[in-house]
Amino acid sequence: MHTSLIGLLSKRRSVLSKNLSTPGPNKEQLNTILDIAARVPDHRKLEPWRFIVIEGENRKRLGLKFSQIKQKQCELSADQIKAEQNRYTYAPTVIVVVFSPVEHKTPVFEQLLSCGAVCQHINLASLALNFNSQWVTNWCSFDKEAQKELGLKPNESIAGFFHIGTAECTPKDRNRPDLKDKVAYYQS
Ligand SMILES: Cc1cc2nc3c(=O)[nH]c(=O)nc-3n(C[C@H](O)[C@H](O)[C@H](O)COP(=O)(O)O)c2cc1C
After folding, report:
1. How far apart are the C-alpha atoms of 33 and 50, rounded to whole Å?
2. Which residues line ligand 1 (CB under 6 A)?
3. Which of 12, 32, 104, 181 is the most buried (most CB within 10 A)?
């Protein structure tokens, strides 16, 4: 048994993007995270997902663009504008997972499940490299103009933004489901 892996998985926690800071993954570590993300169960090998990496100054630029999009739609307070502008400035690396379904006999539902596996592999690979992360969708994932800014095609959608960095403080644990409410044993 890989006791260290079980230990890692059984203590896994997300860290709020606002509580993430440097260091983040270097180029080699980022490639490892992306390699592992792409190593998921994928029925008929359709690869219905792709990645967009946001780093450095581009994090600030994307926040500015998104805050402009939001301000066209809503009246925002100065604090809200600042929060939108700073959305991607905390964690040093942000990976966008794009769900890119393929026209195929394999149901879109299965393709979406494969994409979900990609997403959690990003969290787990980050953790295994001693980083912390958070899977976030927020309004930006569902906004057509925001999607266009990121170059999505009409059939694509955003599965999540993965903020990856180092936790400023260790998060408290979260209540987890009671397995007796979740597990049934089939008996015929
Ligand atoms: C598809 C998806 C979207 C999510 N979007 C957000 C979000 O927009 N904002 C947020 O605070 N948490 C979001 N979360 C939840 C966090 O990623 C995280 O799972 C949650 O805070 C619980 O922490 P844990 O992973 O340690 O259990 C999302 C989770 C999933 C699966």
Report:
1. 13
2. 13-14, 134-138, 160, 174
3. 32
